[in-house]
Amino acid sequence: MEDLDSLTASLLAEIARTDSAAALEELRVSALGKKGTITGMMKTLGAMDAEERKVKGAAFNAAKDRIAAALDARKAELGARELDARLAFERVDVTLPVRHEAQGRIHPVSQVTEEITAIFADMGFTVAEGPDVEDDWHNFTALNIPPNHPARQMHDTFYLPSRAADAQSKAGEKGETMLLRTHTSPVQIRHMQSGPPPHRIIAPGRTYRCDSDMTHTPMFHQVEGLVIDRDIHMGHLKGCLEEFLRAIFGVPDLKYRLRPSHFPFTEPSAEMDIGCSRKGGVLKIGEGDDWLEILGCGMVHPKVLEYAGVDPNVWQGFAFGLGIDRIAMLKYGIPDLRAFFEADVRWLRHYGFPANDVPSLATGLNR
Ligand code: DAH
User: Per residue in 128-140, pLDDT tens?
Assistant: First the structure.
């Protein structure tokens, strides 16, 4: 027992003297490690008779616990001291100016996409996604656009080169022909196939058509909306889009109208126009007697529901699709769409947004 007491006392003294984490670890191994002094003593218990083992076992364990606790306490102390030293040494002068060349800008399309998402998220929509490289069935057939339907020509589709030859002959067969999606509407189908109704999603993303002028680029952005439930009607569609347009343009009493239209995937279909003025060649939203077409919408066609595996006798809903770039042009007065995709940093510095300007309804979208 004397051995144990003196060993414990000398170990505790040594622990108190140790002033580096590495030395402390060495000390721990030499006492409590596999070949450590305390461990060695524990091993002698096996050769003792029951009575002696009981007494000494308890004493060994108590010593082991004291040493372990002292090691832990010293380790914490050394850790705190090391941190203090680092904090004193590593100083950052937060008043130094930001290096100008390191500043990035958020593209107006990204900013508007975030704004649109914030508005619909507030109405309980979640964001869904689909592939840019889509098959003919999801892009057309399941949306009630059968082979040889004139809407296929209107979309100026980019077919993937290797399969371009059979694009005409096999169009419409499920998954046969691959293409760059001409709209975000196929995400409706993919989302409905992914799980049971109800559904309430928006799907922002890239879309592609073979077209290029002041207001068209081969790649552009759309956002699709889809709401499917048991008792959805056009009143919901109207209310939802009214709320959206007022929020995105920041005009509380924005004038708008729903005009009858046609899309193969909705019945009835409509287009929404917002009030504007074009006086002196300057387009202004929310005033004047002119109209500007802003989006397409309607009640999802029963055939589309069927293609997507949803029973049209139980479920119904509405869908809409709008061009994101168009909204960005209108909101920020950017006249030429092609500039959006020229990657000119001077343009981006002028029209872009600071990275920390995260759109949210709480802070306001129209700053
Ligand atoms: N997919 C249509 C287009 O690209 C836009 C659209 C119209 C989407 C009506 C819809 C809708 O969901 O209901 O031109």
Answer: 999 999 999 999 9
- Type of residue at 213: D
Q: How far is the CA of 61 from the centre of ligand 1 (A)?
A: 76
Provide the phi-psi class of 358: left if phi over 0, else alpha when psi is between -120 and 50, else beta: beta
Q: What is the pTM of this model?
A: 0.70
Residue of minimum CA distance from atom 5 in ligand 1: 321
68 CA distance to ligand 1 middle (Å): 70
| 76, two tokens | 């914490």
108-351 maps to CATH 3.30.930.10: yes
Ligand 1 site: residues with CB under 6 angstroms?
183, 185, 224, 263, 266, 296-298, 319-321
- Per-residue pLDDT tens over the stretch 56-98: 889 989 999 999 999 999 999 999 998 999 888 888 888 887 7
Contact 327, 274 (CB under 8 A): no
Residue 103 or 247, more confident: 247
Element (H, E) at 273: strand 266-277
